[in-house]
Write a sequence for this structure.
């Protein structure tokens, strides 16, 4: 039976939960900005890599590039999700996006190899009856992104040697406006021919072209490695920012629901208290009238 004391206890619990949700909302907002700044920090480094490609690609024919990008082996899909909950449909949405992409490609099931970054997105894939060949743990902070990138690159090389993978795709969310995000597909390997073509056609920013003495193949391989690191770093940072954006949206909705519940509980508490006071006053008046008639 509902009493004033039980209502007071429920209000206290709801207020404690409201405090926790506000704290989590604040942490999510701070995390979003940290990961966004990590993405912004890649701008100059990415530009330097592109300039290096620009010089090297002037010595490589476009026909050769097209021949190198023929895909006949397996396709590896790296799906970025979350390790933690309370982020709404974040993992389900990116899995649906990845599976819809392969459905549009009419890709054969036996050619697909899935890897996940985040434990909860692995659960979503397996629930959709897609086995996961490899999985990686998400970093807990910006400082851990590079370690995860290295782990993924080791996995990528292992897939190419042992599984015959010759195409690697990334599926991750990236922040859009406010606390929203959108799914994104990135072709990690082989390097996008259209992107390379755009680099070849891009004018050099100065009147002097730099020269290099290092072997062309070694230098190109080194630039490709750096390019892969940048793409993976950006994918991780954008996915983590999106995860916190999703969590922020969930916490905002939870905060609103809790505030409404606290309001309803307080209204009932005041109604019960007023009814109790009225009942006590009536008892006093009835007792006084009974005494007066004796």
């Amino acid at each position: 039976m509902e009493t004033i004391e039980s209502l007071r206890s429920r209000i206290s619990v709801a207020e404690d939960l409201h405090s926790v949700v506000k704290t989590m909302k604040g942490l999510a907002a701070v995390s979003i900005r940290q990961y966004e700044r990590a993405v912004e920090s890649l701008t100059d480094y990415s530009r330097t890599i592109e300039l290096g490609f620009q010089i090297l690609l002037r010595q490589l024919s476009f026909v050769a590039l097209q021949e190198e990008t023929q895909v006949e082996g397996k396709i590896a899909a790296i799906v970025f999700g979350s390790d933690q909950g309370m982020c709404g449909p974040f993992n389900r949405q990116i899995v649906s996006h990845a599976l819809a992409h392969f459905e549009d490609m009419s890709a054969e099931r036996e050619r697909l190899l899935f890897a996940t970054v985040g434990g909860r997105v692995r659960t979503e894939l397996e629930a959709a009856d897609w086995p996961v060949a490899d999985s990686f743990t998400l970093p807990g902070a910006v400082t851990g992104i590079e370690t995860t990138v290295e782990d993924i690159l080791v996995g990528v090389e292992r897939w190419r040697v042992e599984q015959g993978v010759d195409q690697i795709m990334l599926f991750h969310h990236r922040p859009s406006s406010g606390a929203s995000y959108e799914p994104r597909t990135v072709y990690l390997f082989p390097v996008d021919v259209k992107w390379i073509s755009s680099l070849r056609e891009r004018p050099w920013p100065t009147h002097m072209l730099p020269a290099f003495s290092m072997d062309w193949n070694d230098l190109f391989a080194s630039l490709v490695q750096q390019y892969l690191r940048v793409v993976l770093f950006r994918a991780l940072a954008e996915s983590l920012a999106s995860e916190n954006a999703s969590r922020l949206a969930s916490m905002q909705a939870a905060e609103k629901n809790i505030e409404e519940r606290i309001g309803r509980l307080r209204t009932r508490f005041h109604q019960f208290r007023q009814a109790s006071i009225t009942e006590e006053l009536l008892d006093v008046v009835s007792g006084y009238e009974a005494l007066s008639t004796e």
About this structure: Residues 151 and 260 are 46 Å apart (CA to CA).
